[in-house]
Amino acid sequence: MSYNMDDIFSNLGSAGRPNYTLEEIEAAKKRQKKYGGTFLENLQAIAPEKAKAQAAAPITLDTLRDSAEKAAKAQAALEKATTHTAEDISASIKELNASIAMDFGIKEPVPEVLSEPAKVLDQFNGLTDALRKAVFGQDDFLKKLVIAFKRPFVSERDSNDAMNSIFITGPACTGKHYALTVLAEELSKRRIIKNPGICTIDLSLYPTANEEKLFLQDLYAALQSDSSLIAFENIEACHISMLTRLSDLVSTGECRLAERYIMQNGQLINVANAFAGNAIGSFEAKGKYLLFISSKPVDKLAGIMGAPFVNALGDICQTAALDEEAVKKISAEREKQLIDKCKKQLNYDITVEESFREYLLSLTSKGRALSGVLNGYMDTVKALTELRLERDDLQTNALTLQCDDGKPVIVAGEERISMNALLPGGYNGELDSVKAEMDSIVGLKEVKDYIYSLEEYFGVQKRRREAGLKAGEVNKHMIFTGNPGTGKTTIARIVSKYLKAIGVLSGGQLVEVSRADLVGRYVGHTAPLVNQVVKSALGGVLFIDEAYSLHRGREDSFGLEAIDTLVKAIEDNRDDLIVILAGYSNEMQTFLESNSGLKSRFPNIIDFPDYTGEELLAIGKLTAKSKGYKIDEAAEPALLSYFNMVQATRAMDAGNGRLVRNKLEEAILNQSRRLVAEPGADMSLLLEMDFELND
Fold first, then answer.
1. Rg, C-alpha atoms of the chain
2. How far apart are CA 108 and CA 105, in angstroms?
3. pLDDT tens track for 199-254
4. Which of 214, 276, 294, 381 is the most buried (most CB within 10 A)?
């Protein structure tokens, strides 16, 4: 059953409220179309006398509901032939109430949280079972998590203390964040907390003492927010001064500030006047759940935060590695979400075949975290979205997801579309194309052999994990040494795509930086710069060219800080980041000695030899072809002789591949001059006379 708004407004005549005629209602509609504004404003403009009556008894949600009920009765009298169930009427009235509230800005009062401990404890009944319907494979974790949130309602605590301080740990991507999100929503529904939102503070944003003011600002905002849950992440990347504040907050429920602050325009401003009104001298954790989320074990936490902090924690909740059955359940749930999302947003009717399900499950090795299958579903959504954007010519909206020879395929009628081809270029995991690009590079056989060996190694380790055996982890960071122009940057770019294609990296991007991008210009600037660069490279390769320039002697404090910060960042992100340092051989050896942790983290030193004359000639022919030119065969002996001479006498200064590029540019310029005098000559052919080979 539905209700007509005309009927509602024509039935508003009670308790001094105005009755609006159907003519006035129609006139208000026309006026609204012409001048805009809300329907009610236009209705009041059409009938100003009745508007005055309304002012004395304004329309509220209750009066609109009364009118709606009258309209419902009038309509029911006209529809006696139609039978409506109580559920129909209830659903229609609920829909109407929501529509009225939206149209007139009338909000339902938000239920207050329960205050009596006995009633609150009753609301925890069945909470664990409710969570298990959405979070799979973590029964023990969910049980302990519910106990942790129930604890403050049965135990004694000071009025300023946090509700509870909870350490949440476990392997990466085992559902820690998702479980908290589901829990917060359930707690809000049960009126245990007011707001289901979780306020998250990334502690890696405060790596030095210089970020303390920013940290205090963010912490104060979180403690003053409506969120009952405050989550802290990346504890190991935070400066000790901020960790001390958190330790005090957990241990005593309060952290006292060395200075006094006032809130001004949303910012904390320190004041010298001790008697300033509304000055803030401490932060309190009253009414908040403080959650510390990490994949580190509790003993590691004790080493970072200290034993008093760990002893003050109310609960420690640990997720377990997901078993095969849990992964299947989560995958099935994601499949339902995928089908529903594609239907609503893309207008695709999706059918998932068993081969595709097995393909997605294969992305997560046995006994490991869930990142593989979750990323697989994310890529599927991206591919289907791209298909909707690119292909308006599809003959059908009924799509089937399959897997052929280990590669995902979208079937649309008679057409079979590669899913990887729809993903962003360069990061689609197409191993064959990456290998073809590698093979097209002239020379560097030893370098290529090493890179290709990584596929064999990681393939074996994956098989060991799937067989339930312990798998080793090789240090993947590299150092590229060699003279300029030997292909170091080119190989680094291919390595990033190659390691993505074989499943070692999640992103595959190459972030190329130098000293200027890592070393700050003033005290406290360097560490945030390094951390920002590292963050942008996560999932890919961080390539630092001329890395030896980071160290300019013991007096270069900024450079040394950059190296120290880089070493720590490499250790903290070793699972999804590869760092490649590049530079001259001798200089790089000195650089590795500038920090005791550098050498052990970069065991893979790959030397890029100078190109031979034959290789430079081959590079020249390929480069000329890419520019639309061809080197005359008669010119090749002279070019080969020239390249051999240069490489034997001054390879380092000449620049290897850069030498070829410079010579080609000279030849193209000289050819253009020659063509002026010889307009009938071949415009794509470079002759020996076009090359300057006497230098």
1. 34
2. 10
3. 999 888 887 777 888 888 888 888 888 899 999 998 887 888 888 888 888 888 88
4. 294
